[in-house]
Design a protein that fits this description.
Elements: E1 9-15, E2 22-30, E3 33-41, E4 46-54, E5 58-68, E6 71-79, E7 85-92, E8 101-102, E9 113-116, H1 124-129, E10 142-149, E11 155-170, E12 175-182, E13 187-193, E14 199-202, E15 206-208
Amino acid sequence: MDNSVRPARIFRWQGVDNPARRDTAAVSFRERELAAGGTSATEDYTATWTLSTSPGWVTRRFSIQVEASGWSRSLDLTRSDDGKWSAETEVTGDAGLPNPGLSDPRLLDNAQDVDLALCPLTNTMPVLRLDLLNSAAPVDDTPLTMAWVEMPSLRVIPSHQVYSQVSAYDDDRGYAVVLYSSATRDFTAELTVDADGAVLNYPRLAVRVR
């Protein structure tokens, strides 16, 4: 297996729901896994995060810190080789938000991915793992459970989502279309993604600006 690391790609998105929100991610892709780090900045807080996966684009570790005026909090979320999730958290100040971390790790026993709220990058792993860029992608919808990280509280809850392919990646037009829905948020949208499975346009949430 070719496990060489390609040069990191830099992605930038602007919020659609909140044009003041800016997200960035630097992503190193290699054979069937990735490592990434990024930021999210709004008028109210700034977040920095890192992500690594095991082969098959399954989340291994996700860490994030959120800082705002008068408070901060952090989350270190890990998934073991046998699929068990655990979290370490730290809180300073009073943000008036739910506690960060996991209330019941057993609810995530079927989850393979972390999904950071408002961040388009974390859609990439299921898109790649389900082979949704290619014409041989599964025909049926694929239900998944995600470890959804609420922003800015950093509370982690199970999120039931569905992915399916609308159209495969095409070199001429430069994107594929993926149908995504979240029962947790009662939300459905067609995402356009590039040749690496990274979101170009996430309706009502964010659009790639570079």
